[in-house]
Amino acid sequence: MEQLKASAANSSPLTPLGFLDRAATVYGDIPSVIYNQTTYTWSQTRRRCLQLASALSSLGVGRGHVVSVLAPNIPAMYELHFAVPFSGAVLNTINTRLDSRTVSVILRHASSRLVLVDIGSRDLVLQALSLFPQNSERPVLILINDDTFEKASPPSVDFVDTYEGLISKGDPCFRWVRPHNEWDPIILNYTSGTTSSPKGVVHCHRGIFLITLDSLIDWGVPKNPIYLWTLAMFHANGWSFPWGIAALGGTNICVRKFDAETVYSLIKRHHVTHMCGAPVVLNMLTNSPDNKPLENPVQILTAGSPPPAAVLFRTESLGFVVSHGYGLTETAGLVVSCAWKGKWNRLPASERAWLKSRQGVRTVAMAEVDVVGGDGESVKRDGVSVGEIVMRGGCVMLGYLKDPEGTASCLKNGWFYTGDVGVMHDDGYLEIKDRSKDVIISGGENLSSVEVESVLYNHPAVNEAAVVARPDEYWGETPCAFISLKLGLKKTPSEKEIIEYCREHMPRYMVPKTVVFKDELPKTSTGKLQKFVLRQIAKDMGPSRQSRM
């Protein structure tokens, strides 16, 4: 056959940003965002995003610059997923649950040019900036006000403008900055472990385009869904659904803070069809006193820690239709899902719940997903032989920002090595068994056991510390600290005192909920801590039933 070549007509860079242009044309009068008493249509959302992009450009923000945002699921957070890359800049969403020290590290590592700050995170960001080295360049601050938030003092001189003030100054006819190449970066997200060794995951326009459409196809989302934002948009960009809902002309129901009563009320009021959340969200919904059966089914997609079969069963008994998947910050969304087979519907409820608790098979856009042993070869598909989960596909990250060694360690031999340990069943379905990086998933948030241990080691009474995951009825997993104390102490600390110490030195969600004192921690002959022994002890203790924090 004649050799034909690519041309300008067939090689435009793939980008999810065009989804908003199309939504404004096709679904212009349909509500795009609803938040309390505020409603925008798709044509209004596009106009606001263009004005904001124009204003950002006037502040010197341009191609390749990093713009950070700390905000909950409010309209501004949604709009910024288009407005920031519209200016050519790279969007960096930061977890609002982090402490000021971690936020400071992220802002410096990312070289953030500008930071948009929700009023609820104002003090957090100001404290983070106070930790910058003297004479270092600081980002410009923009305040996002919220009339529904409790009254606060006027913004300080640290903020050069407000979010709405910026929009009012922008040009609604601004021509948004298209990527030169689909491999140009669009997103920068930080994984767990950012305090001591930041890992900034960089994704390109092409990858986000692919994962967005892939997620919609795999979940089977129809046109004009009513999507309730129970998943934080700062968490891997809400699994890329900010762009996906625009592609389908859906309606985004924003909610500032997750509360089961509020969620049930919004589901009924707005006839919600879809929502996402970690297994802890399912648990909160099923344990709520308002958990009466739904009037209409609601599709709910869950991922994070493997959901207990019992929680899945309770959730579906209320009328939710649960889909389960697996992904990482490095894949920008879910790339493995428990694709459901019709014949499974004939099985008993308990068996159906167990099948659905498995992670599943690769999604359409992922090229390959496998489980390999130390030799790089596939393990047996027997549901018993363990290995590391590896994958390759178009939505795998470009790499870690300013970390060539970290990038090379996980992008090798043509695969992305996840660091997660799993098994492959004989039907080709994947199931996670452990996490080789010792990452604990609590309430859908990844936290590093190494970071918690580093704080514990700073306690004057602690000799050794090891932190593992303990099952938790509410959060899925919570940190469990095993500690040996120094000899000769005049006063030994109690479990409560250790926990209080941690609360003073780390984000609240990272604080151990259980502290176990031991004379000596188990070790190998070479002196390495045997965490697998401690994990079993924590598991044998049974699920914790402590307060919600």
UniProtKB/TrEMBL annotation:
Gene3D superfamilies: 3.30.300.30, N-terminal domain of ligase-like
Family annotation (Pfam families): AMP-binding, AMP-binding_C
Record keywords, A-Z: ATP-binding, Ligase, Nucleotide-binding
GO CC terms in record: cytosol
Domain AMP-binding enzyme C-terminal: 451-528
AMP-dependent synthetase/ligase domain segment(s): 21-401
Superkingdom: Eukaryota
Major localization class: cytoplasm
Subcellular location: Cytoplasm, Cytosol
InterPro entries (UniProt xref): AMP-bd_C (IPR025110), AMP-bd_C_sf (IPR045851), AMP-binding_CS (IPR020845), AMP-dep_synth/lig_dom (IPR000873), ANL_N_sf (IPR042099)
Entry keyword Nucleotide-binding: yes
Molecular functions per Gene Ontology: ATP binding; medium-chain fatty acid-CoA ligase activity
Family according to the record: Belongs to the ATP-dependent AMP-binding enzyme family.
Name the record gives this protein: 4-coumarate--CoA ligase
Annotated organism of origin: Flemingia macrophylla
